[in-house]
Design goal:
The protein is mainly β. It has one domain: TATA-Binding Protein, CATH 3.30.310. It is built from 2 helices and 10 strands. Strands 3, 4, 5, 6, 7, 8, 9 and 10 form an 8-stranded antiparallel sheet that branches. It has a two-stranded antiparallel ribbon with strand order 1-2.
């Protein structure tokens, strides 16, 4: 009698955990085990926090800017678009495929789809409330389930008003 066994190899999907983003008061889902957020101060007095983690060929990243000044929402939307456009060059983005803007409850949310110089697909989501700008991105979205990268991209929360 021949007894066949099979080994099913499951690659666990990344688990996300909610982290406080520096001194911004904001939180975001990041890859569990995120060791640190990097921090940089701009000459204008803004504070930029950033992090990315790659798991199984997919990169999950966050750029969060705590602006020194509070801006009206319309102006903050322009600033968010500028940050999104500035992020493209260092990330080697060749194309922006479809930018969608949503305005609701004192915030602006922008979703965009990118393709980089190597033909890798990205999905990003940007947020602003006039005081904070955040950009979350997933590089190589074709290698992760839609539910997984959408969970990450939708995981940003602004600080609660005092």
């Amino acid at each position: 009698m021949f007894l066949a066994t099979s080994l099913i190899l499951r690659i666990p999907s990344p688990k996300f955990k909610r982290y406080l983003i520096g001194n911004s008061g904001c939180t975001s889902l990041l890859v569990s085990g995120c060791s640190q957020l990097h921090c940089k101060h701009t000459t204008e007095g803004d504070v930029i926090y950033f992090n990315d983690s790659a798991i199984a060929g997919v990169t999950y990243g966050l750029i969060c800017v705590r602006m020194k000044q509070v801006y009206p929402l319309q102006q903050a939307e322009t600033i968010l678009v500028q940050y999104i456009n500035r992020a493209r060059k260092p990330l080697h983005i060749a194309y922006s495929i479809s930018m969608e803007i949503e305005k609701a409850a004192g915030r602006v949310t922008i979703t965009d789809y990118w393709q980089d110089n190597e033909g890798i697909d990205w999905k990003i989501k940007g947020y602003t409330n006039g005081k904070t700008v955040a950009i979350l991105y997933v590089k190589n979205v074709t290698e992760a389930a839609v539910k997984e990268h959408d969970t990450f991209l939708n995981g940003f929360r602004f600080s609660q008003p005092s």
